[in-house]
User: What shape does this take?
Amino acid sequence: MNRTIRTALTAGVLAAALGLGATVQATAGTPRTVSGKPADDITRIADFYGAYIDAVTDEDSGGLGDALRDHYLGAGFQKQLDAWEEANHANGVLRAQNVPLAWKVTDNGSTATRTEALVTLTWSRNSTTTLVVDLNRGSREIVRIAEKGAATK
Assistant: This one.
C-alpha cells in the first residue's frame, strides 16, 4: 500500500472513530528540502534571518533575538543598528515595525573581503522589501543592512 493511500485511510479511520464530520485530504508529492553549508556565506545570512524572524515572531523567545544579533552581527554595526532603530522607531534588521510572512536570501556577489546578499522580505501577497546585507568574509559577521547597495549609497 503506498503512502498516500495509507495516509488517507488512516485519516478516514481517525475521523470515523472520533466522530468528526470533517474530511481529511492527504497531500501527495515530493517533500520539500532546505539545505545549506556552515562555511557558505549566503547560508549564514539565511540562517540568521530565519532564526531571527522566528525569534521575533515568537515574541523574542526570552531574548533570543538579542543573542542572535550578538552572535551574527559585528559589534560596530550593532551600534549603527541601534542608532538607526532609535531614529526610525523600527526593527533595524527587518527595517520595519512588524514581522514578515516570508523571506528569501539571494547571492548578489562578493569581493575578497565581503559577500553581499539581497534579502527579500514578504509582508503580504503584493508587498515585499529587498534589503542589501553585507557579510565580512574574515569575521563571518554581518556588517551592513541597508535599502541600497554600498556602491549606490
Q: What stands out?
A: The first strand starts at residue 102 and ends at 110. Confidence is low (pLDDT under 50) at residues 1-23.
